[in-house]
Automatic annotation (TrEMBL):
Keywords: Isomerase. Transmembrane segments: none annotated. GO terms for molecular function: isomerase activity. SUPFAM superfamilies: Xylose isomerase-like. This is Sugar phosphate isomerase/epimerase family protein. Residues 25-226 form the Xylose isomerase-like TIM barrel domain. InterPro entries: IolE/XylAMocC-like (IPR050312), Xyl_isomerase-like_sf (IPR036237), Xyl_isomerase-like_TIM-brl (IPR013022). It comes from the Bacteria. The keyword Metal-binding does not apply.
Length: 254
């Protein structure tokens, strides 16, 4: 079974990060995570200082999320930032009002994807569950995949949101050959609420998910948990431990 480098999306610990940026990153590194999706540093910290901190913690910047439901972003500036810190991926998430809106945004994704490629980075679309709404019998996410250039626009598929949208994450991931370099992994509690769960504590089969990810060329598994029933840092530690116990973590696999 393929073992992956494991990164974290710090949206999971957004409140702690806003209170204590350095201390929270130190705690993430102490858990064992190798990588992080991270944008420019907070006010009062330079990129050079941020890079020095990340180097000290052995945390590799994998990429950055540019925006949620907004494409009026200075992508050139973000690309420059990623070059400084060694990241390669630029991700966005959007909402869609209609089939025509999805088509317009797919065209925009191609243009942004070309800008990212010209700048030595890769543009990713990160899904939620609303991309499994259908227009003319077709999922929005399938429409986006069909209408975008696979060389310019790739996915950062999210396992929880695929399941919440009513599809099997393994089956959907298996369609994404060479198109899903980063995989957001989060689990789902059993029961009607289908609340977020730590990896290995819910109903999703991460060995099967990891096998599918290996087949399609995924490079990093990235832990994210939008909401937690315990301290989010404890949730991140549980997910990391369980990934190691499942034999999926290249750093701490037994």
């Amino acid at each position: 079974m393929k073992k992956f480098p494991i990164a974290v999306q710090p949206y999971t610990v957004r409140e702690a990060l806003s209170r204590d940026y350095v201390g929270t990153l130190e705690k993430i590194a102490a858990i064992g995570y190798e990588g992080i999706e991270l944008g420019p540093p907070p006010e009062g910290m330079t990129v050079a200082e941020q890079k020095e901190l990340l180097n000290r913690l052995n945390l590799q910047v994998v990429g950055a999320h540019a925006s949620f439901d907004n494409l009026d972003v200075d992508f050139g500036r973000l690309i420059d930032y990623l070059h400084q810190v060694g990241g390669r991926y630029v991700a966005v998430s959007m909402k869609f009002e209609s089939r025509e809106d999805a088509l317009r945004k797919a065209e925009r994704f191609n243009r942004i994807g070309q800008q990212c490629r010209d700048g030595g980075t890769t543009f990713l679309y990160h899904n939620h569950d609303w991309e499994f709404a259908q227009y003319d019998g077709e999922y929005v996410l399938d429409l986006l995949l069909r209408e975008t250039d696979p060389e310019l626009v790739k996915l950062e598929l999210d396992t929880y949101w695929v399941a919440k949208g009513g599809e099997d994450p393994v089956a959907f991931l298996s369609k994404l050959q060479d198109r899903c370099p980063l995989l957001h992994i989060k689990d789902m509690e059993a029961g009607e609420e289908r609340f977020f769960a730590e990896i290995g504590e819910g109903v999703l089969d991460f060995r099967d998910i990891a096998n599918a990810a290996a087949e399609v060329g995924t490079e990093w598994l990235i832990v994210e948990q939008d909401a937690c029933r315990r301290d989010p840092l404890d949730s991140l530690a549980i997910s990391y431990r369980n990934l190691s116990e499942l034999g999926l973590n290249r750093k701490n696999a037994g």
